Amino acid sequence: MFPQSTLLDPLFWMVLGAIQVLVFTGANQWAKESQLGMNWWKWSVVGFWWLSFILTIAGAFTLLGENEGNAGWYVLGFVGTLLVIGGAAILKVLVLLKPNHP
Amino acid sequence: MKDDAQIGDEATNSSRRNFLKLGGIAAATATVGAGAGAGFVLGRDPDANIGWGRTEAGKDMYFNREAFEVDFPPTMEVVGQIERPEWGDYLFNRAFSLVKSIKGGWVPSEDWTQIPDLRVREYYAKYPKRWEEMLLSFSEKVKHDNNIEKHRDRFALAWAYSGAYSKGLHADFPPEPTEHPDVDDFKWVQREPKEFKSPKHASKLIKQMAFKFGMSMVGITKLDSNFIFKNMMRGMPEWGDEIPKHWKNIIVFGVPMNWDPMYAAVGYSTSYDAYYRAKMASGLMAAYLGELGYAARPQFPGNSYEVIMPPLAMLAGLGESTRNGILMTPEVGPNIRLAAVITNLDLEHDKPIDLNMKHFCESCKICADACPSGSISKADKPDDVVRGVRKYAFNQDGCWRFWNQGPTPSGLGCRVCIAVCPYTRKNNWIHALVKQAEPRDPTGVTRNALLAMQHNFFYYPDAESFHPEWSGGNFASYHQPPEWMRSEEYLKVEKTWEYDGNWEGF
Amino acid sequence: MYSKKRIDFWKKVASLVSVSLLLLAWYCGSIRISDNQSDMVDQLLINGELLTQIHPRLYQGTSANELSPVEFIGLGSGIGYGGITEVAVTVSSQGDIQRVAVLSSKDTSSYLDKVLQSNLMEKILGENIKVSLEIDGVSGATVSTNALTDAIKQAADSVRVQVFGFSMLENEEPVSHFRWLDLMAIAMFTMAILVNKTRHRKKSMFNWAILLSSMCVFGFYSSSLFSSSTMGILISGAWFSGLGNYTSLILLSLVILYIIVSNRNVYCTSLCPFGATQECLAKLGNAKTTSLTNFFFEWFPRGLLLTTLCLGLYFRNPASFSYEPFGIMFGMIGSIYLFVLTVLAIVTSLVVKRPWCRTLCPMNPMTDFIRFNRQWFKSILNKQRAKREIMEANQMADVAVKSNEVSK
């Protein structure tokens, strides 16, 4: 976020990394509450989706930042839409594979 | 009591759970925002401007070529007897000779057989259609000169930038050879030669020095005589086809043109910034070799060569040959300006590389579609054989004709094919990822997906819009000029124009 | 609130105003067009200075210092998505193509742009017309490409026949345009009617099957679903002189006919590819049905459709005026604004059922318009019949009275 800043840039990335712990504990809490029965592969799918989502947003904005306005918005719209649909699909699968609690 | 404690526990548990749930959402939102923000500033990051950022440590040449080394460059497909280039094959030789003849009273006509200089005539005997383009370049130059000053308000800062580097480029360092190469190349030698531990050591040091002298990329190869001009030797009025004995190896290096002006080709771009730096580096390198006791003959832009640079750069592993005929490197695409030093120092040679660029150029064609003079072939496969090597047909005289139309004060240069090339991208993370992935994918899926995006998502002005207003365009450029080249931001001028090109999109 | 009768009155007014606006746009459009063809052709001269027409489809350019003509300009036309595309080709006296210009086109501009950007026209510059012309296709815009290609070939042939004395144009059969997709459209529509009529317990499954196949065939494969521009083509009569692709027009006509006959719209529920897309996404996201019985959502699309149709009629180019996300969705063709609209529609479909259908789709205003007028027409008929019955009854009564009197 602060490419030419000697101090802020590494701090930013550390904080961003730390925040991810919050993201996933929060997600874990939601998953528990809706009794999704998460396991390793379910978490990897969700994690991979989250990574792709953030990278798509960052990538589109990188294009905007280097003055590729058209391409930036198209990438965001196109890949972003695909990911949103993919996310809905993953959610659906998670709900369908919910273990039956006695 | 026990029950109370349990209830209390449950209450704290539930508030803890709520905290985690809401905290997760807040953190996710923050991450999305941070992703967008970090992405944007990374796109703006000057560190991505290869050659203008982290050069000294040699970190511009970030692509690890080792995995792609081959014995012979795949884009240098030899299909016949390789011939050495003639004096007349060199466009500037022809152009200058013709100008000289015109100044001497000759009036050019549509009949190329009337060209006074035999060497020029021989070239147009081979390519009679190109004479029309050369002829047009004269009338277009007149049109250019009559119109160019009307647009100073718009281009004042761009011309000043280009002019400054032009002055630097035309300074007398390194000096032009004035004597026989056997004498001239040794003028740099100050002391007895100091022997290197091995050619490997020599190459390692020389490459580091190229970086220290400001070059982004460097490669070393044996001086292949196939790419040495015949009948041309600076400092000698007459020359046959002999090659000086001490011309053993060639150190080829280069630097990209400054990125934002280059993307704003034609009017806002210049080659002089990179020319200047490459030329200086060749002088420094020659002097450095001389200090260690070795002969050196710098080859540098704009016009001081005995060799054709791109094929030698290919042999030195810098990149591959492309549709637009310019050397394409994995780091900066075709945005590279080369210089070199020929030396008698024993050096370890680099190997050519195979980055699949052959297939990339076959399916991309963006440069050919954007070319304002239509000089680049749109064929699916290389469709010409030049001096024994298969290449894409390229009409150098058509290209030169558009140089004379371009809205630069000198009326020289275009650079549109460089600006629009998908490989000409700054070194930020998305392009770095792509450039690493594409050559490693043997299936071509990455290439096709990327090119589909290139063709559908990116905006390219029409070939005609790159033209100046007086020849039917609107001064379009692939990117709009950077803020520091917009005269309306700094000078007392009235903005009467609109920019056509990519911009940040807000 | 207004009474139902009052609303009905205003609807009748609106219906009449719409029709008159469309007629007005058509009329104004015909005033706008003046015969400026030779003006346009005049600008296509390259070396010649004087332009003379030597044939309805051929001009020649002569220059002052030469007697024989230095170049020829041939005109040709091809049939595109929205009607006729006209092209002028400038040919040197040796037969080399020097310039190609599109004089007029009725195709959607984004499709035409795609063809022009592909440099299809630049590639044939310099080719000699004495041999047959090789012209590449452009994927994603086949109909516009074919129109342009046909037009160029025809224009070149105009020159060829008059100047070089031979023709190389293969005569195409007019029925070649009627392709399997058109048959498919009719078949699918018939199936849609059957599915809607059946009381089979697997009715909804049938409906899904037909919806999905329509999405594949008329959506992703051929992108031939109809839009407001098809409606424009239908009412402007541009189809009369020929179209490059009739599939969407056939679909639209069938839909309209069926609404008129049975008052039912089967297209939206069973055939619309974009509807199918939204349905799929709704399934994926468990979307909720929300009802939008808002005045704005009812009347805004009506106004929008009317404006679009009027513009299409005025500029005699209905294919250029449409606002649907279909082009982007099924062919990645359209402006960035349509792209944004498409993304919005798609993403919203995950949470709301058929958001596009409920807001901007021109299908609702069209259906409403037809249904309303159908009803109105019927009620007029009914009234007349009632009147007639009353009159007849009166007459009968009269007769009876008279006969009574007589009998008295």
TrEMBL record, chain A:
Chain ranges passing through the membrane: 12-31, 43-65, 71-97
Entry keyword Membrane: yes
UniProt KW keywords: Membrane, Transmembrane, Transmembrane helix
Top-level taxon of the source organism: Bacteria
Name of this chain's protein: Tetrachloroethene dehalogenase
Automatic annotation (TrEMBL), chain B:
GO terms, molecular function: iron-sulfur cluster binding; metal ion binding
Annotated SUPFAM superfamilies: 4Fe-4S ferredoxins (SSF54862)
Entries under Gene3D superfamilies matching the protein: 3.30.70.20
Sorted UniProt keywords: Iron, Iron-sulfur, Metal-binding
Domain 4Fe-4S ferredoxin-type, residue spans: 351-381
Domain of life where this protein originates: Bacteria
Protein name: 4Fe-4S dicluster domain-containing protein
Species of origin: Shewanella atlantica
UniProtKB/TrEMBL annotation, chain C:
Molecular functions per Gene Ontology: FMN binding
Keyword hit for Membrane: yes
Domain of life: Bacteria
Pfam families in UniProt: Fer4_5 (PF12801), FMN_bind (PF04205)
InterPro entries: 4Fe4S_Fe-S-bd, FMN-bd
Residues spanning the membrane: 178-196, 208-226, 238-261, 295-315, 327-352
Domain FMN-binding, residue spans: 80-159
Identification of the protein by name: 4Fe-4S binding protein
Gene Ontology cellular component terms for the protein in this record: membrane
Record bears the keyword Amino-acid biosynthesis: no
SMART domains: FMN_bind
Annotated keywords: Membrane, Transmembrane, Transmembrane helix
Species name: Shewanella atlantica
